[in-house]
């Protein structure tokens, strides 16, 4: 049995590791990476990123899309295939599951409600969602939901990909997930430590719905997607499909000693509501992050929460690394890169930006073991190449 948490960090060795790409003979090579129109290259040399996503599909990933923006220019590239059966190229503006990058959207929705005076960051969650937590449960604040200092326990679920495949179409409600998690002991007293999990954001999604009186998907569309003209971004609710153009995601499964790639594209995301269920595209993610960091989604007073780390230790003993929706990635010289990664079966996603937005990057990789303990080699190569260009 395992405790269900989201993927929490980049692989540090991605900056220094030379990776070997192994292509299985049963899969033919795709055309070279394609650069999208409307992304002006300037003097930017995308060579490192082209190399990072070369050779797809292979045993590690079937496709990759990458976008990078620097003061020298912008580049968007895609390689690999839309699906293994047709071997067609990845469609332009392909949509994908963004996994825990959803948390950035959810944090923005909650902070908008704070800016409107409809809730307070210091408000007890129990005041707004009475009965969700046990009567004797210690006070959990709205801020603690967003910065992973709430201590709400995660559910314990069966290990193994076969169980996951057998239950891929199950439908969960947020309340069911919370009740299942509460069968486990509380991790720590709220506000005393930090531990990255989905639970705070599942509760935050319920909070958005309770305060607004509308479904999370509607508020995401009304407050963020439509104002920013994000044509590819939506919360799928109970629909297990990815609507619109997209690349298929696959999961490697070992059966009778042989590895099979199972199509993981159609999969219910109701187990990660408001924490990992949103669908988007590279262009939409770049538009969103740019507007967010510029203060056009959340007012500056509340936006500061997204760049503030709580003054508590992580459960591992190190310093806190997670703010409201983002992760702090220190750079040489004292600068911080603000990142968020996400994974769902078949899909790996990442976004990163400097605080001033001069450097931004996004990627989507259809990794064949996206929920594995180790980050895919392709994702490591992309991260290393992008940070090298920074």
TrEMBL record:
Protein's name according to its UniProt entry: D-alanyl-D-alanine carboxypeptidase
Residue ranges of the TM segments: none
Keyword Protease: yes
Keywords: Carboxypeptidase, Hydrolase, Protease, Signal
Higher taxonomy: Bacteria, Bacillati, Actinomycetota, Actinomycetes, Micromonosporales
InterPro entries xrefs: AmpC-like, Beta-lactam-related, Beta-lactam/transpept-like
Gene Ontology MF, one: carboxypeptidase activity
Domain Beta-lactamase-related per the UniProt entry, residue ranges: 74-348
Superkingdom of the organism of origin: Bacteria
First and last residue of the signal peptide: 1-29
PANTHER family linked to this entry: D-ALANYL-D-ALANINE CARBOXYPEPTIDASE, D-ALANYL-D-ALANINE-CARBOXYPEPTIDASE/ENDOPEPTIDASE AMPH
Matches recorded under Pfam families: Beta-lactamase
């Amino acid at each position: 049995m395992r405790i269900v948490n989201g993927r929490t960090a980049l692989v540090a060795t991605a900056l220094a590791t030379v990776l070997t790409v192994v292509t299985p003979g049963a899969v033919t090579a795709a055309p070279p990476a394609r650069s999208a129109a409307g992304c002006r290259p300037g003097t930017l040399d995308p060579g490192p990123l082209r190399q990072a996503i070369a050779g797809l599909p292979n045993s590690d990933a079937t496709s990759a899309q990458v976008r990078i923006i620097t003061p020298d220019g912008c580049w968007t590239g895609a390689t690999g295939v839309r699906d293994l059966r047709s071997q067609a190229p990845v469609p332009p503006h392909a949509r994908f599951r963004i996994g825990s990058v959803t948390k950035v959207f959810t944090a923005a929705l909650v902070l908008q409600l704070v800016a409107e005076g409809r809730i307070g960051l210091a408000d007890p969650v129990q005041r707004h969602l009475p009965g969700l937590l046990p009567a004797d449960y210690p006070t959990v604040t709205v801020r603690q939901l967003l910065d992973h200092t709430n201590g709400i326990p995660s559910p314990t679920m069966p290990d193994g990909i076969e169980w996951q495949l057998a239950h891929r179409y199950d439908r969960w409600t947020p309340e069911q997930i919370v009740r299942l998690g509460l069968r486990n002991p509380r991790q720590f007293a709220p506000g005393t430590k930090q531990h990255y999990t989905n639970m705070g954001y599942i509760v935050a999604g319920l909070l958005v719905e309770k305060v607004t009186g509308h479904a999370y998907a509607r508020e995401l569309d009304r407050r963020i997607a439509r104002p920013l003209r994000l044509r590819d971004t939506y919360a799928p609710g109970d629909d297990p499909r990815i609507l619109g153009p997209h690349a298929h995601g696959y999961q490697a499964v070992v059966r009778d000693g042989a590895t099979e790639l199972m199509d993981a594209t159609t999969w219910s995301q109701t187990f990660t509501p408001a924490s990992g269920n949103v669908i988007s595209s590279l262009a939409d993610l770049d538009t969103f992050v740019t507007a967010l960091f510029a203060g056009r989604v959340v007012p500056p007073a509340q936006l500061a929460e997204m760049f503030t780390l709580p003054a508590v230790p992580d459960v591992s003993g190190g310093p806190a690394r997670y703010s409201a929706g983002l992760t702090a990635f220190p750079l040489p010289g004292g600068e911080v890169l603000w990142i968020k990664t996400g994974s769902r079966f078949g899909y790996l996603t990442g976004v990163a930006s400097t605080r001033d937005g001069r450097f931004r990057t996004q990627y989507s990789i259809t990794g064949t073991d996206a929920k594995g303990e180790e980050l895919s080699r392709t994702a490591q190569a992309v991260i290393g190449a992008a940070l090298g260009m920074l």
